[in-house]
């Protein structure tokens, strides 16, 4: 089962990379327009970003589910591993739309300085995932033992809970959130899309490269032993913890840089960037 998860992980990470990368484009554009005092364009960026994220989610869910059996067979001939990987991915990839929407909300809240909302939403989603994992994998009371499918459902439900929190806060505190998501803001699509994708595509590629690297490594290691694939998958998950603190600092820098850049405070942008580099260097050391 762990080997199956390790083989599915690069595609799962690619989905997350697309969600995060595109949402970075949304966040940067909102921050820039807010700094320039152009609320209307900030609303347009948020609305286009959310609609496109939902479309991305649907397309990615269909494509990734369709290719998964053949993808897995590229690395192993073990039918048990393949069956487990397909079972997990079919459930996990159903939540691609949820992932895209939640990530868009996360970046929208970050863009307007509501970092605590993102923090609480992610924390609650992760805690729900952690609690449900053993219950749904091994079974408990009325909950049947679902094995690897249970792990997928636990992950998906955790992601859905995060999205529900974002939606609840957004609609409950609508008057205090400076950007609006509304279909009437679907204007100036060409220019807005160009800017969102112009920022989002490089960010997505930067985040997606590890997925391609792991895929290549899985292909090499699978020729020797499935155990090697398992070890690489476990190691790579642990390795991500090394970068989480640095990534958190970047998340904090991004909206502040965007806001000041939009306001024409270029010296302040350089100072923020310099301070961020210094802080990350200290943390990493």
Structure overview:
The mean pLDDT is 88. This protein is mostly helical. It is 84% helix and 0% strand. The longest helix is centred in the C-terminal third of the chain and has 37 residues, at 226-262. The chain contains 9 helices and no strands. The relative contact order is 0.17. It is globular and about 60 Å long.
Keywords:
285 residues, mainly alpha, 9 helices, globular
Structural class: mainly alpha
What's the gyration radius in Å? 20 Å
Number of DSSP strand runs = 0
How is the biggest beta sheet arranged?
Answer: none
Mean pLDDT equals 88
Poorly predicted regions: none
Counted by DSSP, the helix tally is 9
- The helicity comes to over 70%
Oligomer: single chain
- Please state the overall shape, judged from the principal axes of the Cα atoms: globular
Kindly estimate the percentage of residues that lie in beta strands according to DSSP: under 5%
Please give the alpha-carbon distance between the first and last residues. Answer: 36 Å
Order of helices and strands: HHHHHHHHH
Describe the structure concisely.
The protein has about 280 residues and is mostly helical.
Topology:
Blueprint: H1 2-35, H2 39-73, H3 79-92, H4 96-111, H5 115-138, H6 148-172, H7 189-222, H8 226-262, H9 266-284
């Amino acid at each position: 089962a762990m080997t199956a998860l390790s083989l599915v992980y690069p595609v799962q990470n690619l989905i997350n990379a697309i969600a995060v990368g595109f949402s970075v484009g949304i966040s940067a554009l909102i921050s820039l327009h807010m700094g320039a005092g152009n609320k209307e364009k900030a609303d347009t960026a948020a609305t286009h970003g959310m609609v496109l994220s939902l479309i991305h989610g649907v397309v990615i869910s269909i494509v990734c589910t369709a290719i998964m059996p053949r993808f897995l067979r590229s690395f192993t001939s073990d039918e048990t591993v393949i069956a487990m990987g397909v079972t997990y991915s079919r459930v996990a990839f159903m939540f691609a739309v949820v992932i895209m929407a939640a990530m868009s909300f996360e970046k929208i809240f970050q863009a307007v300085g509501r970092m605590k909302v993102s923090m609480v939403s992610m924390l609650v989603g992760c805690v729900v995932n952690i609690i449900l994992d053993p219950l749904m994998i091994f079974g408990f009371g009325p909950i049947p033992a679902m094995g690897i499918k249970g792990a997928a459902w636990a992950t998906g439900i955790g992601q859905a809970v995060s999205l529900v929190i974002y939606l609840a806060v957004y609609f409950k505190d609508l008057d205090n959130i400076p950007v609006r998501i509304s279909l009437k803001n679907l204007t100036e699509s060409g220019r807005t899309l160009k800017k969102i994708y112009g920022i989002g595509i490089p960010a997505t590629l930067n985040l997606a490269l590890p997925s391609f690297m792991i895929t290549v490594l899985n292909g090499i290691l699978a020729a020797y032993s499935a155990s090697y694939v398992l070890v690489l998958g476990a190691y790579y998950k642990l390795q991500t913890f090394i970068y989480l603190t640095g990534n958190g600092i970047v998340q904090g820098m991004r909206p502040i840089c965007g806001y000041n850049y939009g306001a024409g405070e270029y010296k302040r942008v350089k100072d923020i960037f310099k301070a961020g580099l210094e802080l990350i260097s200290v943390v990493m050391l």
